[in-house]
Each structure stands twice: as C-alpha cells, then as structure tokens.
Amino acid sequence: MGPPETDDRVRRAPADRPAAPVTWQATGRGAMVLQWDVIGDTEQSVLADPVRLRSVRQLGRPGPDEAFDRVAMLVRKLVDAPLGVVCLVDAEEQFLAGQVGMPEPFASERAMPLTHSFSRHVVVAGEMLVIPDVRDDPRMRGNPSIEQLTAIAYAGAPITDPDGLVVGVLCAVDHEPRDWTPSEITLLTELAAVCSSEVCLRIARASAEEAQRAAESAHQQLELLTDLTESLAATMDITEAMRRLGRIVTTRLADWCVVTYADEPGTEPHVSAAHRDPARAADMARLADLAARSRTDLQAIVLAARRHGRPVRRADGPARLRGRLSDAEIAAIATSAGLGSSMVAPIISPVRRRVMGAVLLVNGPDRPSFSAAEERVAAEIGRRAGLAVENSRLYREQRHVAEVLQRSLLTELPALPGVELHARYLPAQDGAAVGGDWYDAFAQPDGSALVAVGDVAGHDIEAAATMGQLRNLVRGDAYGRTDDPGVLLTHLDHALHGLRVPAAATAVLARVRQSWSGYQISFANAGHPPPLLLLPDGRVQVWWVPPEPLLGLPQQDPRTTTTRYVPPGSTLVLYTDGLVEDRDQLLDDGVARLAEVLRHCAVYPGDELCARLLEVAPRRSDDIALLLVRLTG
C-alpha cells in the first residue's frame, strides 16, 4: 500500500534540500507517519560524536553481561519476540551487551558491523523506532540482517547516557511482519529506561575510578580521599554524606568548613557546617541554618566557585574575611570559629559537568595558608562530593524506575465471586527497590480460584526478570487445569528445568473452591513460610506442613497437596519471608508474632488489616509481598 497523497501528519523536506529517502514508521495499528531520513554526513556525525563515544567507551567492550542478558530475556518472554538485544553502538560496530536468540557467530563474538545494524537508525533519530516490516523501509531493506538473521519486524527503544545522548538500543526483532502493540512499545520503553539507569551508574562508577587514579599521585591525598570515598559510598542519604564530608575535611585539611549544594538549579540549597573542635557543633549547626536562610553570603560562595570552576585560595586575613560576611550573626560565629585563610572548592557533577555547590574551607589565624597541594586535594573533594550527589540522584531515579518495573510485573487482583482480595508489595529499603517477591490470583474456568505468593532469591533486576518468568509459567501451566496444587508445582519444576530458567524460589500455591460446608482450600508449599487462616471467631491457625524443597531444585518425588475445609468469613493470609524474618530471631517467632497481630486486628477491613500486618516487619531489609483472601460466602 502506497503513502497517502495528503495527510496533515506528513513532514516534507525543505525545498532547498534534495528529497531524501523516506521511512514509514508505525504509530499504532493502521496509522503510519512519514518521516524524512537524513543520511550520509549527518548520520556519521551523530555516530562519531566524541561526547557520545566517550560514554560508549566508558562502558568498555562488553562480553557476556548477566544483567543485560536478563533484560534481553525479559524482552523475549514478555514481548514474545524471537530476538531480544541490548546493544551499544559506536562509530564502527554494534556491541551486543545483552542478547537472547542471536545466531552464531554474533552470539559468541558479541559484536556486529554497522552494516548489519538497524539500531544505528535509533541512535541517529534519537527516539524509538517501530517498524512492522523492515523490507518496506528504504533505510533498512538492504540490510544483511534481513537474510542472515531473518529479521523482519523491528522495535528499538533508545538507551541514554547521563547527558541524554543515545549510546545504545534495547530492541525486539521478529522473524515475520508484525504490528507492535502499544503495551509492547510501553514495555520496551520502560525496560530501556532501566538499562539507561544501569548505564548511568556504570559511567558514574568509571568516572569515580578515574578520579581515584588521579588521587594516587600523593600519599597524603590518597589517604584522605580514600577515607572520604569510603565514607560517602557507605550511604545514599546525601545529607548524611555531606555531614561525613565535613567531618573528614575538618579532621585533616581545615579547621572548619561549610558545604552547600543544590540538587537542581533554582532549588533550595542544602547547607551543613563542621568544625575540628566537637565542642563547636552547636555553633556550626546554627551557622548552617543561618547560611541557608541568608542567601546573600551563601550565593557569594557558590558564585565564586562557579565563576572559576576550580578551587580558589584566599589569604586576606581575618578583617577582610569578616568584611565579606553581610549577616552580623554569621560574622560573629565565623570569627569565634577562627578566621585566617580560606579556600572555596566547587562541587562539580561528574555526570552533568556543572557546578552544583561549593565547599568553603577555613583555617584559623594560627594556621598557615592553604598550599597548592591542598588546593589539588580540595578540587578532588569537590569532585567526590559531586559524585556523591549524582549517585544519590541516580540511586533515587533507579529505585523509582525499578519499582515501576516491579509493579508492572505484578498483576491486578481480579473480582472473584465469594472472594475478596487485598494485596500489598513493599520493596526493600536498601538496594535497587526491585526484587523477586510476587503475588497472583486468577479465576479458573471450573469456578475455583488459584492464589499464589512467591519469592525469587535476590532483590535486583535479575530477580525481577526471573520473577516475571516464574509467575507467567505458573499462570500458563495452571490455567484451565483441575490438578491439585502439588501436581501443578511438580509440573512447574519440570518446566523450570526444561526451559533452563535459573530460578531458586519459594512459593505457596492454593486452590480455593466452594464446598457444601463453606470453602475447600488445597495448597502446596515449596519451602515457603506457612499460610495463616483467620477464622470468623478470631482464632488463627498456622498451616505448618512438612517442608519441601524450593522451586528450581532437582526433584525426585512429586510434591504433596494439603486440603483444609474452612467456614465462610475466614481470611487466608499468604506472605513472603520479608514480613517475618529477623536475623536475631527464629522464623517460628516471626510467624507467631504475625499470627498474634492478625488475631488482634481481625475486626479491621481488608486494606486496614494489610497495613497493620505490614507493621510487623522488624526491618525492611527484604521485599514483602502480602495477599489476603477473604472468603465472604
């Protein structure tokens, strides 16, 4: 079918430029947008951009990368595409950082020439490309991958570095023409954002290593900066990181200091102050509070750092230093703390390459002026402080993206006759905020309902990818079958081994059906904490059963099924170990504590009961999934 002759959405080439080849790009079923493809020198200038290439090369030439391979596998499983690839594109080659389904020799070599690359067009365009059939695209129809890889349908989402430059592409490829659905496009976009976060973190880590190598030129610098780096790396709380910075520099470099920074231009500054003498802690806290409110003196410090872009040493003497402080109380505290020589070091973001704040270092009048060597140390302190600010920002962004990914993999609870469902998922407070805990519930054609809670080892992107596979295997294998849960988990073990899914997981799978006396609940437990049942009279049963191995481990015997009959008005509680595990107590103690809270909170409605039960967790060091099944009758 040819292009429409008239369409308001068509963008035409300027009259002063020769007509270039055009690309038909799908924007939804039946809708096509005509785009001009600028090739030649323009394409090469984008691919060879030195700033972009620096980011690509900071990531190194990748070999097999488990994290990116997991993302590629997730693309294959969730998008149902034969090929899933995480690629990095430089000026000459395309590196396969993660892949599944690629034939040899590309799968082993992890590289392919740009002549075979569809993804270079995503880099040049700077946006996602969705192509139902590349043979109809003038840019791609001569690509050797069409024959060598049987690559017909292509969807690629950009992977960006901290500066927003496209360094790679997360793509799905099909062997036949395909209209990519909006949900598939959204999933690719979200997974590409996860890859971008990983790329940014790796680039930031590479920048930190470069800074560390520069600091090794002097033993004194190395000692101070190593301690500083270790202290900042031990926390992602940026306020605490800046306090630690102040304590370290006042121990070895200056008598007292003021640290100020802002996450974004125009936002309220964060200010902290520290003194070598612990007795002056109250004065420093007051100084920080006044400096944050009195923007005049603070802005002068930051402007000096921004204007020079490097440390600035001053040896003006107490009188001139005090004269530059307009606030009388600030001047009084500074004089009391000791005014002699000073130095301002900019806090520079190693990612965004801009001044985000400053460190003011001050020595008393009895100390010598700051030296050139100390100026170099101060410059390195500013860089490391900038890295800490960026790491905190990237960490928050990654936690947000990862949590969105986690929640996208958790199903919405269905409306079931006679059954009221409530669920909660809470990520761990430490780590990537994404993990392998999951819950699920769905109706069966025979009128019964299957409910499940499971926990894949780990709380990272790999665990989430495995969790998605495991949950889909449970659904796909169990739907429409009337087998007992033990039989279904036995089949699941076989599937995990046959498909080579690297899962080590616990799970409880239960079938709920109405019976003559109320409800029949049949369940199987694969190494998971026991279900709890809240009876209508307020009593709580803990359904301990003989332990059976985790999912994913070699199985010799079929799994068992336990059946219980419960009255209407009962509530079944399924949960993961993050709710009851405490390294200082036995698991039995945590389960007993949960049962006691469940008994005391029996009168609360479902949502409130979930909130009360979540308060049982001793600490959020692990993910928590919680599912309440209320049998209303």
Automatic annotation (TrEMBL):
Record flagged with keyword Coiled coil: yes
Residue ranges constituting the PPM-type phosphatase domain according to the UniProt record: 416-631
Coiled-coil boundaries: 201-228
Lineage top rank: taxon: Bacteria
Keyword vocabulary terms for this entry: Coiled coil, Hydrolase
Keyword Methyltransferase applies: no
Domain GAF span(s) in chain numbering: 63-209, 237-399
Database matches in Pfam families: GAF (PF01590), SpoIIE (PF07228)
SUPFAM superfamilies registered for this protein in UniProt: GAF domain-like, PP2C-like
Transmembrane domains' residue ranges: none
Record GO terms (molecular function): phosphatase activity
PANTHER family found in the cross-reference section: STAGE II SPORULATION PROTEIN E (PTHR43156:SF2), STAGE II SPORULATION PROTEIN E-RELATED (PTHR43156)
Name the UniProt record assigns to this protein: Serine phosphatase RsbU (Regulator of sigma subunit)
